[in-house]
Amino acid sequence: MSKNSTTNNQIETGLFLEKPILTKKETAQLLNVDLSTLWNWQQKGILKPFGIGGRVYYKFSDIEKALIQL
Predict the structure, then answer these.
(1) Which of 24, 37, 59, 60 gives a 20 to 30 Å CA spacing to 52?
(2) Tell me: the pLDDT tens digits for 29-70?
(3) Cα–Cα–Cα angle for 17, 20, 59, nearest 5°?
């Protein structure tokens, strides 16, 4: 199984929803946006990044809060 199909399966089965924190890549895949979009949202204060050991993470709860009803 390829890495990409594994990621697609994670999204389809909701495995991302079980994780309290997500990497930049996981967050971008979950929201179906480019990494540069995440960076722009960080700059605008839409999503707040957290880091440890030089790595960047996003809290799933913050992602949910950033979503607005249309």
Answers:
(1) 37
(2) 999 999 999 999 999 999 999 999 999 999 999 999 999 888
(3) 105
Task: Enter the pTM of the model.
Answer: 0.71
Q: What angle do helix axes 35-44 and 24-31 make, rounded to 10 degrees?
A: 100
Measure CA of the first residue to CA of the last residue in the chain; give whole Å. Answer: 37
| 51 beta partners | 56
Q: What single DSSP character describes residue 64?
A: H
Q: Is the pLDDT of residue 1 over 80?
A: no
Contacts of 42 (CB under 8 A, 6+ apart): 48, 49
User: According to the model, what pLDDT value does residue 2 have?
Assistant: 47
Residue with tokens 């390829």: 2
| Token pair in block for residue 11 | 């999204």
